[in-house]
Specification:
There is one protein chain. The chain folds into two domains: 217 residues, Class I glutamine amidotransferase (GATase) domain (Rossmann fold); 103 residues, Arc Repressor Mutant, subunit A, CATH 1.10.10. Helix content is 43%, strand content 17%. The chain is built from 14 helices and twelve strands. Strands 1, 2, 3, 6, 7, 8, 11 and 12 form an eight-stranded mixed sheet that branches. A two-stranded antiparallel ribbon has the order 4-5. Helix 1 links the parallel strand 2 and strand 3. It is globular, with a radius of gyration of 23 Å.
């Protein structure tokens, strides 16, 4: 699995180094940028370390694979049959309908399972986590993915525990990253795990990366989870979304919809994966975020408008949901002339 060869001399002594074999799978309808960026990243690492610490190969279930909705094609270095054992397997992001794309890449499932059982670690980028989850290797484990697909992921893989606020998650040799460009943070994390801090710092400076990103909460847009078939729950969601500035009493709302509160709360959680109280909070904070992004109101004015009277309570809730205080959120996303 590893190649051992002569390394540099330190104080006149020659030491052995271990070369990591990294296999980047090329998924059907994959995102080409996440593949080429990963390959380029480890190529830079080899250059900085002045030795081939990483041997990177592109692996596919056939020799040439279409990506980016058929716009790009990549010719792989190795097919599954000829790839050999790996130390690390990277599963890049996929595009289009995630379930269709996941099914198109079913040929990788047995190979991923076998490689993991033989000691390989697996790292998924963004919604590439859907492919890893389809193998069953994530059952009972935590997993990060793009926040926009978190509820869809939960619906199709209920045995996997989604951490949709995290940029990176690691458990039992399986790594996962959040959405968009967060795969760069996972690449930095893996580089430090396999080499040293100096290499990571060099990479951040070369690629102009932010090493301190730990959460994707500040990037989330809460639109309400309506991908379910419970018509009553959808009516309740719309009721909340229209009256979020008011004081909503769950007992009174349940009576309005002619349903027992306990039954309503149970159905609401089953459909949205949020309690009614949590849903109300998410709607209020999402509205507060928009006010901060586009308006000229003070934080205190926005707080009162959302129905809160205590700044600490509002600030703590805002931080819990977004990962930033209201003031820091304004600095990050507020109008420059505000």
């Amino acid at each position: 699995m590893t190649t051992i060869s002569g390394g540099k001399r330190d104080n006149g002594k020659r030491y052995l180094r271990i070369m990591k074999r990294i296999s980047i799978i090329v998924p059907e309808n994959g995102v080409s940028a996440s593949i080429t960026d990963a390959r380029r990243f480890f190529s830079f690492a080899n250059s900085f370390l002045q030795e081939e610490t990483f041997h990177v190969q592109l692996v596919g279930f056939r020799k040439e694979i279409l990506l980016d909705d058929g716009v790009v094609s990549i010719r792989v270095d190795k097919t599954l049959e000829s790839s050999g054992p790996s130390n690390l397997i990277i599963v890049p992001a996929i595009s289009g309908d995630v379930l269709t794309a996941t099914q198109l890449n079913r040929h990788y499932y047995p190979w991923l399972i076998r490689q993991y059982k033989e000691g390989a670690e697996i790292a998924s980028f963004c919604v590439g986590a859907f492919i890893v989850a389809a193998t069953g290797l994530l059952n009972g484990k935590l997993c990060a993915t793009h926040w926009m697909y978190a509820n869809e992921f939960r619906s199709y893989y209920p045995d996997v525990m989604v951490v949709d606020d995290k940029i990176i998650n690691e458990q039992n040799g399986i790594f996962s990253s959040g959405g968009g460009t967060s795969y760069w943070n996972l690449l930095l994390y893996l580089l430090e795990k396999y080499t040293n801090r100096q290499a990571v710092i060099a990479a951040t400076k070369y690629f102009l990366l932010d090493i301190e990103r730990h959460s994707q909460a500040a990037f989330m847009i809460f639109k309400g989870q309506k991908e379910h078939d419970d018509a009553l729950v959808k009516q309740v969601q719309l009721y909340i979304e229209k009256r979020y500035k008011e004081k909503i009493h769950i007992e009174e709302m349940a009576a309005q919809f002619s349903i027992v509160r306990r039954t309503l709360e149970r159905r609401f959680i089953r459909s949205t994966k949020n309690s009614i109280a949590e849903y109300i909070q998410r709607i209020k904070i999402e509205a507060a975020k928009k006010e901060i992004e586009t308006g000229r109101k003070t934080i205190q004015e926005i707080m009162y408008e959302m129905g809160y009277s205590d700044m600490k309570t509002f600030r703590d809730l805002f931080y819990r949901i977004t990962g930033l205080t209201p003031v820091d959120y304004r600095k990050k996303y507020g109008r420059r002339d505000a």
